[in-house]
C-alpha cells in the first residue's frame, strides 16, 4: 500500500467516524483544527485499529495530534516496526 493510499484511508476513517466531509480533512490537519477531542480521538483510534488490523499502544496513541502523525505511525506498524511506531 502506498503512502498516498494509506493517507486517504486514514482520512476516510476520520471523516466517517466524525461524520464530517472528507474534503475538510487534509494530511496536515491537526485534531484540534478538526474539533476532535480526546473522546473522539479514542473512537477514531478504535476505528483505525479495526481498519488496518493493528494495535496502537496507549502511550503512543496519546502523542498523536494530527492526521500525518497517525498515518506515519500506522505505516510503521504495518511495516512491522512496532518498537518505534508512533513515537513522537
Structure description:
- By secondary structure, the protein is an all-alpha fold.
- It has a single domain, classed as ACP-like (Non-ribosomal Peptide Synthetase Peptidyl Carrier Protein, Chain A, Orthogonal Bundle), CATH 1.10.1200.
- 53% of the residues lie in helices and 0% in strands.
- Helix 1 packs across helix 2 and helix 1 packs across helix 4.
- It is globular and about 30 Å long.
H and E string: HHHH
Cα gyration radius (Å): 12 Å
Largest sheet: none
Per DSSP E runs of 2 or more residues, the count of β-strands stands at 0
Architecture, according to CATH?
Answer: Orthogonal Bundle
Q: In angstroms, what separates the terminal alpha carbons? A: 23 Å
CATH superfamily: ACP-like
Count the domains: 1
User: Which CATH C-level class is it?
Assistant: Mainly Alpha
Helix share, percent: 40-55%
Output the CATH topology. Non-ribosomal Peptide Synthetase Peptidyl Carrier Protein, Chain A
Shape: globular
Mean pLDDT: 89
Outline the low-pLDDT stretches: 82-88
Secondary-structure class: mainly alpha
**How many H/I helices?**
4
Beta strand %: under 5%
Amino acid at each position: 500500500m502506498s503512502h498516498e493510499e494509506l493517507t486517504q484511508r486514514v482520512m476516510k476513517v476520520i471523516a466517517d467516524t466524525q461524520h464530517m466531509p472528507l474534503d475538510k480533512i487534509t494530511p496536515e490537519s491537526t485534531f484540534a483544527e478538526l474539533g476532535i477531542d480526546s473522546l473522539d480521538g479514542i473512537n477514531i483510534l478504535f476505528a483505525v485499529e479495526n481498519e488496518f488490523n493493528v494495535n496502537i499502544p496507549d502511550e503512543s496513541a496519546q502523542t498523536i495530534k494530527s492526521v500525518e502523525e497517525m498515518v506515519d505511525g500506522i505505516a510503521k506498524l504495518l511495516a512491522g516496526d512496532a518498537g518505534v511506531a508512533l513515537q513522537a
